[in-house]
Structure formats: structure tokens, C-alpha cells
Amino acid sequence: MVATAEAVRVFNRLPVSARRLVSLCGEGEWFVGTRGGAADHAAIKLAHRGCVTRVGFFPFRIEDSARFFPGHDLVACNSGVYAGSPGGAQYFNAKVTAYHIGRVWFKMLRPDLASRIEHLRDINPERLGLRHAEFGQLLCQLPARITRTKVQAAFGQMAEAERDGWSACS
After folding, report:
1. Reduced to 3 DSSP states, what percent helix, strand and coil does the chain have, rounded to the nearest 5?
2. What is the Cα–Cα distance from 147 to 162, expressed in whole angstroms?
3. β-strand partners of 67
4. pLDDT exceeds cutoff 70 at 164
5. Can you give the pTM of this predicted structure?
6. What tens digit of pLDDT does each residue of 42-86 get?
């Protein structure tokens, strides 16, 4: 996707920054059937030989870049063996939906903390001001498995924005 986007950008002389190209590639995955993000696109487009770059998201940003350890090399190899998961995009999308449901369910358990939770990464004891034991008890209240019927039954309790997000994931 990154190679195609870069070729289209160059061929058409489009004034698209590297950061914007990464975001567009992430959004582009949604149109081919996966509900992914832009991390892999960022690694492909923003990597520099001999460096390790840390990127952040929400909003997208380059957080830091440092030279790789002198005298060491990092080599990535493709074995040529397909290691895809059964169900492909459908399996991947189910995991994304599960993350969304877990985040929403956590917010329903503790509506007083909901304003601090926008993304799954926000659910951590430090950000929420919880003791680790209290946080662990909350996590234990999340269902390990949940049916579509149970999620749909809880649909009315969700904030409107959460219902919209669920609709996009299902």
C-alpha cells in the first residue's frame, strides 16, 4: 500500500507530506476490508537506515529517533512461508472489534472514568488514577467472552459516539 501510494504521489506530483501519506495509507486499509491502523505504514515510510524511530498515534507524531547500536545490525527476513491467520481480514477485524467492545464495556463499568478513556491505551491504572488492585478488580469484571446478543443488549447503555463506533466495527 505504501509503495502504491508513494508511486501515485510522485507520478501525479501531489504535495502530500510523509506523515499525511502514512495516515492516508492507514485509512486506505479500511477500504480494502481491514480495520487496521497506520503503524506498519509509518515503519515503512519513515524508517531511516541505521536508526530506530518511535512513532505515536492519536495524534500521529514522531516521538524520537536514535541511531541503532554501533557495530550491530538488525536484519528482517521473509521465510516465504505464509503465516496468515484463518479467516484473514475477518479474523483481524474481529480482534479490533473486541478491543472496541472491551474499551466501551470498561467505560460502562466506571462511567466516572469515561471522560479519560478515548482509546484502548488509556485504560491503565496510572492514567485513570486507580490503585493496581482496584484496576485488577475492574479488569476481572470484563467478560472473557461475549456474544453479539449481549453486546446488542448493552447497546442502549452506550454513549452515542460509542454506538457509532460499534456500528463501524460490526
Report:
1. 55, 10, 35
2. 18
3. 51
4. no
5. 0.60
6. 888 888 888 888 888 777 788 888 888 888 877 777 777 765 656
Asked if 68 and 51 touch (Cβ cutoff 8 Å), the reply is yes
Which SS3 state, helix, strand or coil, does residue 55 take?
strand
82, 114 Cβ separation under 8 angstroms: no
What residues have CB less than 8 Å from 54, skipping those under 6 apart? 62, 63, 64, 65
Name the CA radius of gyration of the chain, rounded: 20
- 157: DSSP letter: G
Question: Nearest-CA neighbor of 151 among 90, 108, 114?
Answer: 108
Which positions ≥6 away from 13 have C-beta within 8 Å? none
CA distance 39 to 9: 20
**84 DSSP assignment:** P
